[in-house]
């Protein structure tokens, strides 16, 4: 099972000196990949509950967020080996032609290390701010995937769709290996079917290992029924780590607890068939300093070796 770590991107710990230091340290420690998230606003009166917290409130760290693609470009310049991915970009916010050019540039600059995780997000106010339509987010995501596939594999390119229009053109900046792998966050039946039919893999978060294993098996079965090789689908688990001193015991959220409980979650993800496990401890108590994040980086890596 490969291991990934989140680039420090949000809150007080996300300083220029900190970001570069921890990127280099993660590669030195032995992590296989580095990842960025996507947050556009900290709404003062959000219309929806934040799904990743028990009280539905956004963490204060989201008041200050570095741009994900800028961070990946920076990371490509100061690393040599780790892959560089998004977990996840809210794809309907972006013009796919502009996004495809940026990602192909990052892939070229990093010599083929870019990876794309996509989703639709949860906050309608961010859609309004980005000039995107909340009610048609699924259809926009599908069409964006069409445009990206054409952009990275076809020349000349032409597209006429519901949301995007590209006249016949030559756009020949391509990813190094032909196309950038696309992974999807998916929890509804329609989204899971999209993974099975169109994705290179699934990026679950916050799901207990037994349910995660069952859901992934269903996606692989749908892929096989559609004529795809199910073995080509990967599962990249996002572990939103909250590290505590005392154990929480039964019925705790996954990757929330003391060291022994986090270690159990790592073993469970591996046993469920995860190809990769991505740690993001940025929102864990006390992770507002580079020293704390660096120590946590080492601790999680060591736990994963047992």
* Mean pLDDT across all amino acids: 96
Write down the overall geometry.
globular
**What fraction strand?**
15-25%
What's the helix count? Answer: 9
- The N- to C-terminal Cα distance equals 12 Å
Question: In angstroms, what is the radius of gyration?
Answer: 19 Å
Number of separate strands: 12
Question: Strand count, sense and closure of the main sheet?
Answer: 8 strands, parallel, barrel
How is the largest sheet built, in terms of strand order?
A: 1-2-3-4-7-8-9-12
Structural class: alpha/beta
The share of residues in helices is 25-40%
| Low-pLDDT segments | none
- Following the backbone from N to C, one meets helices and strands in this order, namely EHEHEHEHHEEEHEHEEEHEH
């Amino acid at each position: 099972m490969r291991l990934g770590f989140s680039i420090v991107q949000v809150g007080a710990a996300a300083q220029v000196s900190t970001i570069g230091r921890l990127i280099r340290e993660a590669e030195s420690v032995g992590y296989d990949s580095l990842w960025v998230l996507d947050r556009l606003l900290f709404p003062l009166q959000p219309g929806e509950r934040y799904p990743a917290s028990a009280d539905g409130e956004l963490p204060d760290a989201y008041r200050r967020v570095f741009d994900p693609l800028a961070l990946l470009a920076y990371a490509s310049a100061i690393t040599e080996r780790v892959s560089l991915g998004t977990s996840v970009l809210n794809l309907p916010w972006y013009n796919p032609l502009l996004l495809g050019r940026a990602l192909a540039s990052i892939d070229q600059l990093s010599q083929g290390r870019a990876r794309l995780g996509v989703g639709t997000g949860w906050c309608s106010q961010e859609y309004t701010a980005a000039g995107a339509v909340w009610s048609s987010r699924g259809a926009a995501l599908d069409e964006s995937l069409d445009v990206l596939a054409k952009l990275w594999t076809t020349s000349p390119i032409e597209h006429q769709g519901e949301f995007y229009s590209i006249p016949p053109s030559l756009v020949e900046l391509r990813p190094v290996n032909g196309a950038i792998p696309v992974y999807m966050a998916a929890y509804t039946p329609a989204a899971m079917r999209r993974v099975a039919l169109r994705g290179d893999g699934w990026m679950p978060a916050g799901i207990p290992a037994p349910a995660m294993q069952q859901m992934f098996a269903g996606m692989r079965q749908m892929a096989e029924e559609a004529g795809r090789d199910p073995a080509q689908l990967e599962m990249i688990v996002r572990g939103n780590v909250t590290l505590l001193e005392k154990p929480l015991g039964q019925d705790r959220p996954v990757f929330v607890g003391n060291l022994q409980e986090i270690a159990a979650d790592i073993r469970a993800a591996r046993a469920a068939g995860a190809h990769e496990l991505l740690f993001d401890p940025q929102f864990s108590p006390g992770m507002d300093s580079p020293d704390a994040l660096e120590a946590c980086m080492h601790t999680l890596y060591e736990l994963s070796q047992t």
